[in-house]
UniProtKB/TrEMBL annotation:
E.C. code: 3.5.3.18
Protein name per UniProt: N(G),N(G)-dimethylarginine dimethylaminohydrolase
MF-aspect GO terms: dimethylargininase activity
Enzyme class: hydrolase
Superkingdom in the source lineage: Bacteria
PANTHER family for this protein: DIMETHYLARGININASE (PTHR12737:SF9), DIMETHYLARGININE DIMETHYLAMINOHYDROLASE (PTHR12737)
Family, per entry: Belongs to the DDAH family.
Encoding gene (name): ddaH
Keywords carried by this UniProt record: Hydrolase
Keyword Hydrolase among record annotations: yes
Length: 258
């Protein structure tokens, strides 16, 4: 049976020192962030996901954003190599976690850089953002790792936000959603729906019509509910201050067989 496992990683006590690139730095309350993270994990569990905690990386402020450290396709875990040097150590615990789950492990190597937040999978199409964290060599290595397994990798420019998935994600029917002012080339996606809020562009597919979304995007939640989806809202305000979104707090592993 296909698994419904999701990797998560407890926030570091140094979370407030996390990187900010495209927004002004705001004070982060690490205690409140931990409460928000616990509610996020609970929302995954309530919707049938078995959460697997990667060993915490207390010295790495951004380690809670576990999505950036690994890209899953079928049973292969491609360990990322962040374009932000300060985030590279985060992969250590993640390598162990995916190996323990029985994944086959592959790596992005120097000079390649790639953050998991730049990778959006829709079926066997893998969109990869070329932006501040992912370079051309990283994209070539992603292609080399996954195209032989049946994926088609499509590279897209990202200049207005941190990652591709800060700009766009996809609904269960494959429609790509994004807040137009933050999307470089909406025309690259076969079906594109514009949403009214920047954080409304981020959805985690929980299964069926259910979408995990940030509470900061109520208008988008209303729009998507009107289209027959079921938004499940979580407050991730402390992570949003560090350019985090609902997608980056977990790695869903749907194609493992257990
Ligand atoms: N995939 C994501 O959206 N990750 C968010 C990472 C935020 C972190 N402060 C960073 O700049 O790397």
């Amino acid at each position: 049976m296909p698994s419904k496992k999701a990797l998560v990683r407890r926030p570091s006590p140094r979370l407030a020192e996390g990187l900010v690139t495209h927004i002004e730095r705001e004070k982060v309350d690490a205690g409140l962030a931990t409460e928000q993270w616990e509610a996020y994990v609970e929302a995954l569990r309530e919707h049938g996901w078995e959460t697997v905690e990667v060993d915490p990386a207390d010295d790495n402020p951004d380690s809670v954003f576990v999505e950036d450290t690994v890209v899953m396709y079928r049973n292969v875990a491609l360990i990322a190599r962040s374009g932000a040097e300060s985030r590279r150590e985060e992969t250590i615990g993640v390598e162990e976690a995916v190996a323990r789950l029985g994944c086959s492990v592959n790596w992005i190597w120097e000079p390649g850089t790639l953050d998991g937040g730049d990778v959006l999978k829709i079926g066997d199409t893998i969109y990869v953002g070329r932006g501040g964290r992912t370079n051309a060599a990283g994209i070539q290595q992603l292609r080399a790792a996954f195209e032989p397994l049946g994926a088609q990798v499509v590279a897209v420019p990202v200049s207005k936000v941190l990652h591709l998935k800060s700009a766009v994600t996809a609904l269960p029917d494959g429609t790509v959603i994004g807040h137009i002012p933050k999307v470089d080339r909406p025309s690259l996606f076969p079906r594109f729906l514009s949403v009214p809020e920047e954080s409304g562009a981020h959805v985690v597919l929980l299964g069926g019509d259910k979408l995990l979304m940030a509470a900061s995007a109520p208008k988008t939640a209303e729009l998507l509910a009107d289209l027959g989806f079921e938004p499940v809202l979580v407050d991730i305000g402390e992570f949003e201050k560090l350019e985090g979104c609902v997608t980056c707090l977990s790695v869903r592993m749907r194609d493992l067989y257990a």
